[in-house]
Design a protein that fits this description.
The chain is of the alpha/beta class. The protein is built from 13 helices and 20 strands.
Length: 518
């Protein structure tokens, strides 16, 4: 009996030991347990952070990209890639663009592509700095003083002492569409790659074109800051376009300097000497490049030289009542087909009482002609409602069919001599641009005139210097996704995005919290 009770007691003890949880050996439940646990957690977080930093560092130095975009909007063309691989220089880019500008993100993304491709070229150092004119005031002030920038939304490419300035209109192309009674400005294309690649090619060239302005006959002065007569603004624009601008006193020289890329004669009011005219004749004969601005009712002695090039200058004033505001200016928005005006589509140029510049009757402009004959192309002219007014004292001007010449009347032409259409020969042709006005480039006109005036002049000088097409890269139209929704649909979508979804997430969070509390 006693033995049975002992066995039953022993069996019960064994069952109790089997059903009891194992002892918690090795687990410290002292007062410092929470401190040790916290130290372990902090150390784990720090180690994870160090690991992330190392991974990020290695990823920046050794990474591979894959283009999974459905379009090639930011993909660089083969011409740009070839240009980058051929450069051995250090190019710095300073972007003075406001962050809320519509082109800011596109400029940043495109320059990121340039930087990625430039990093793969060992001989090219490519640096980009974005400066916010609204926030980085100190940096903006320093760089604006250094690069002579007076307005925001500018991009500066620099290589050594050579610089190229790009504005909003150089990277974006707009058109105006009439919506109701208002004109809406719409973006047509993004020309960033063409502008950036052309700027890089321009600043990395060893030499800059030298443009001389003739002096000594009452011409416009590039160092004159006078509002009505000075040309300091246009000289500054030329320097920003990576040109070297110098005055030229031809009477004190043996001839036009050999380093002259383009010679500009802007608004002389006195006659040139026979020796100076002979120097200009010889300069054009040796493939020279001449840009002439002649005002109405002024005799300069250049008339005979221009006649030898198939041009005639009448003693008149060109007017067009359909292309003017006050009757004294002439706004041109339709141009002839020429490399100078090819990029001026939809941009107006304003002239001030210009004189006519036309081809002589015995020198009709044709496309196929011998190399010793000039090819004349009209750059700008009035509409058919304009005319050449020969009574200079009549105010306001009135059309007299017996005396005046009915429009269209040319006021700007481009002439080229030395090339034969259809024959490829390595002969540098002589080029000439003649405009019947010099006031349209004065400081005051540049400040008050329309936006195409500067573009017209720079395009003419670049054509004369053979810089009109540094990089022929097509602009890219924007990828626009239009979502057409009614006002009711917009309100419903706004309620779902702003109200319903956040409320639903909050309810789910409360339910999870309540479940864990139980």
């Amino acid at each position: 009996m006693a033995v049975n009770e002992a066995q039953e007691s022993l069996q019960a003890g064994r069952e109790h030991m089997d059903s009891a949880p194992p002892p918690d050996r090795g687990r410290w439940r002292g007062p410092g347990a929470r401190i040790v646990t916290g130290v372990n957690v902090v150390a784990s977080i720090l180690l994870a952070g160090v690991l992330m930093i190392l991974v990020h560092y290695l990823a920046q130095r050794h990474y591979q990209r894959w283009d999974v975009a459905t379009s090639d909007y930011y993909k660089l063309s083969e011409k740009t890639l070839s240009l980058l691989n051929s450069l051995d220089a250090e190019v710095s880019v300073f972007v003075f663009f406001r962050k809320h500008h519509e082109a800011y993100d596109e400029i940043r993304n495109l320059l990121a592509e340039y930087r990625y491709e430039a990093d793969r070229v060992s001989t090219l150092r490519f640096k980009v700095e974005f400066v916010d004119p609204d926030r980085d005031l100190a940096r903006t002030r320093d760089l604006a003083r250094k690069y002579d920038i007076s307005e925001p939304n500018m991009i500066v490419f620099e290589c050594g002492s050579r610089r190229k300035y790009l504005g909003e209109k150089d990277v974006m192309e707009y058109q105006y569409r009439l919506v109701g009674q208002a004109a809406r400005k719409e973006r047509v294309s993004f020309r960033g790659e063409q502008a950036f690649s052309s700027a890089m090619q321009s600043v990395t060239q060893a030499s800059r074109p030298v443009v001389y302005f003739l002096t000594g006959h009452g011409e416009r002065n590039i160092e004159d800051y006078d509002r009505n007569a000075g040309y300091s603004v246009v000289a500054r624009a030329m320097r920003q376009d990576n040109m070297e601008v110098r005055p030229l006193f031809l009477a004190g020289e043996k001839g036009v300097p050999d380093d002259c890329s383009v010679l500009v004669i802007a608004g002389p009011d006195r006659k040139l000497s026979s020796a100076e005219l002979e120097s200009l004749k010889h300069y054009l004969a040796r493939s020279g490049r001449l840009c002439v601005f002649l005002d109405p009712a002024v005799t300069t002695g250049l008339e005979a030289l221009l006649e030898s090039w198939g041009l005639q200058l009448a003693r008149d004033v060109v007017v067009d009542p359909t292309q003017t505001f006050t009757g004294r200016e002439l706004m041109i928005a339709e141009y002839g087909d020429h490399p100078i005006t090819r990029k001026l589509h939809g941009v107006a140029t304003m002239f001030y009482m210009p004189r006519s510049v036309d081809a002589r009757e015995s020198a009709d402009p044709v496309d196929d002609m011998p190399a010793d004959k000039p090819s004349i192309k009209v750059l700008a002219s009035t509409s058919k409602n304009g005319w050449a007014e020969y009574n200079l004292e009549q105010s306001p001007a009135k059309f007299d069919p017996e005396v005046d010449r009915q429009g269209p009347v040319p006021v700007a032409v481009a002439v080229e001599k030395g090339t034969v259409s259809g024959i490829e020969v390595q002969i540098r042709p002589s080029r000439l641009v003649v405009v019947g006005d010099s006031s349209f480039l004065s400081n005051g006109a540049m400040a008050q005139g329309v936006g195409g005036t500067q573009d017209f002049f720079l395009s003419a000088v670049n054509w004369l210097a053979e810089r009109e097409a540094l990089m022929a890269i097509s602009p890219k139209p924007p990828d626009v996704i239009r979502l057409e929704m009614s006002q009711t649909q917009l309100r419903v979508a706004g309620f779902l995005l702003v109200g319903a979804i956040p409320i639903l997430v909050s309810i789910v969070g409360l339910l999870v919290w309540a479940h864990r509390r139980r």
